[in-house]
Design brief:
By secondary structure, this protein is α+β, with helices and mostly antiparallel strands. It is built from 18 helices and 13 strands. The strands form three sheets. The chain has a six-stranded mixed beta sheet with strand order 7-8-3-9-11-10, sandwiched between helices. Strands 1, 2, 4, 5 and 6 form a five-stranded mixed beta sheet that branches. A hairpin with a 2-residue loop joins strand 12 and strand 13. Helix 2 crosses helix 4, helix 4 packs across helix 8 and helix 12 runs parallel beside helix 15.
């Protein structure tokens, strides 16, 4: 399995139908960045923010140990990080990774259905955080990050992107237009990134130079990994391609690598949240919208070939949003000459979207998941009330209320009433109230917000988000 993970990215890159091309050199005058500022205060703050339950890396240093030794180790770590950044070199132990394969879905015997999560050195991840913050600050300040990559700018949560997309689709439906959408999945996206092309883009597109570019070059080169399964360890192998998943710097580098993707698709609108890619096209008829979508996917495929990225048509999904009914088969949607399946509902950023934007499928699944979690809560009834409240409000309820500003306005109030009934059931379990206590009394006794109150509160918070106001002004 370790051999597969170490070579899959390079194999997919070699299988591209044409040779990768270098990024175009941007001649516009842009401020460069060549160094990273590292201070004891920032290192101390990052150590204090470490989660003690996170796993250790190959060096055996745990987050808990760093938290306990923080006052003593901060000066030494700061000098060590400053030396690494100044010399443009990464210590070899910090380039080693223990891979833990995490199953995604489909066939568990297929190695490609596992995501290789890298367990890296905790001190190394602190330095990665400093580098990542410096790079992102540089690209944001200089306006180099595309407006359609929502993963990293501050104040752009997933729910804001979901709100933006669904509102655009709803407006089109209200105007009797047709929206053709594709949710694109890539084969081993992080593993396929060629180091040479990435470094070329960092230098010429984002003006990263000097010691920082040298450090990033050394960070990517001659990385090694060991796969650990049930305590058994594989042989150590070198990785010649890709960005380590599980690293702090990895998502930042991948976002910069795919930063030119939205502008390369002119036939439709393309939005990114890290590697989650959504393309949609609007037309007056189904045929027109689907024709535009095929053109957009052709443009995307050409960019993917040039950048050694491989779309996964079997896991891509296409959906039509329209008013009324459509008679006849849907037009064929293809990417790279392979057909994409039409669906009536799809998962996007943790929310199930249906082709009529009714949220019925999502709320049905949500109710079933809520019941399962309440059964778990019931089995934990031997715990103290404080522990039960922590379990409910920190684990269970956030997973239920996620995206409530999106689905909270569903036209079928029975779904909201069902969720409210389960919310009251949780209160009865935690406070040991009689099962026939009226819901209104339960809310008064516990002083909890109802599900509908949560929707209104989150809606107000959304309206007070400056970025949401900017979206409203650009949408209407």
């Amino acid at each position: 399995m370790n051999t597969f993970f170490a070579t899959v990215g390079a194999s997919l890159s070699r299988n591209s139908t044409c040779a990768p091309v270098e990024a175009e050199i941007d001649t516009a005058p842009i401020q460069t960045i060549s160094d990273v500022s590292i201070s004891e205060n920032s290192i101390s703050r990052k150590i204090k923010a470490l989660k003690v339950n996170k796993a250790e890396g190959p060096d055996g240093i745990t987050p808990k140990l760093l938290r306990l030794a923080e006052p003593a180790v901060v000066p030494s770590l700061t000098k060590l990080y400053s030396l690494s950044a100044k010399e443009g070199e990464v210590f070899s132990l910090w380039k080693k990774a223990h891979l833990c394969p995490v199953f995604k879905k489909d066939d568990p015997t297929d190695r490609s259905n596992y995501r290789p999560i890298s367990l890296l050195s905790v001190p190394s991840k602190i330095l990665e955080s400093c580098v990542s913050e410096a790079i992102l600050q540089h690209v944001v300040d200089n306006g180099l990050l595309t407006e359609r990559q929502w993963a990293y700018p501050k104040g752009y949560p997933t729910q804001l992107l979901l709100t933006h997309l669904t509102e655009c689709w709803r407006q089109s439906i209200d105007a009797n237009l047709v929206v053709a959408t594709t949710f694109v999945d890539f084969r081993k996206a992080f593993d396929c990134v060629p180091h040479r092309t990435l470094l070329h883009k960092l230098k010429h597109k984002f003006k990263i130079e000097g010691n920082l570019l040298s450090w990033l070059t050394d960070y990517l080169h001659r990385r090694t990994q060991v796969t650990v399964v049930n305590g058994a360890r594989s042989d150590e192998l070198y990785v010649s391609c890709g960005i380590p998943q599980g690293s702090v710097l990895g998502p930042c580098l991948f976002s910069l690598y795919t930063n030119d993707m939205p502008d390369s698709v002119t036939s439709g609108a393309l939005y990114l949240y890290a590697d989650d890619t959504t393309i949609y096209c609007i037309g007056s008829t189904v045929d027109e919208a689907c024709s535009l979508l095929n053109n957009a996917l052709d443009e995307l495929n050409k960019l993917c070939v040039a950048n050694s990225l491989t779309p996964h048509p079997a896991k891509c999904e296409a959906m039509l949003f329209y008013r009324g009914s459509f008679i006849g088969p849907y037009p064929q949607i293809t990417i790279g000459k392979e057909e994409i399946s039409w669906v009536c509902h799809a998962r996007l950023l943790g929310i199930t979207i249906d082709h009529k934007l009714t949220w019925a499928k999502h709320l049905t699944d949500l109710k079933n998941s809520f019941v399962t979690k309440l059964n778990l809560l019931k089995k934990c009834s031997f715990l103290r009330r404080k522990s039960l409240l922590d379990l409910y409000f920190k684990v269970i309820l956030p997973s239920v209320s996620y995206g409530i500003t999106i689905w909270g306005n569903c036209n079928n109030l029975d779904h909201i009433k069902s969720l409210q009934a389960l919310h009251c059931r949780a209160a009865r379990l935690i406070y040991n109230l009689p099962w026939d206590t009226p819901s209104k009394t339960v809310m008064e006794v516990t002083n909890w917000d109802s599900i509908y109150d949560m929707y209104k509160i989150n809606l107000v918070k959304l309206f007070y988000n400056k970025n949401f106001i900017d979206l409203l002004s650009s949408t209407y």
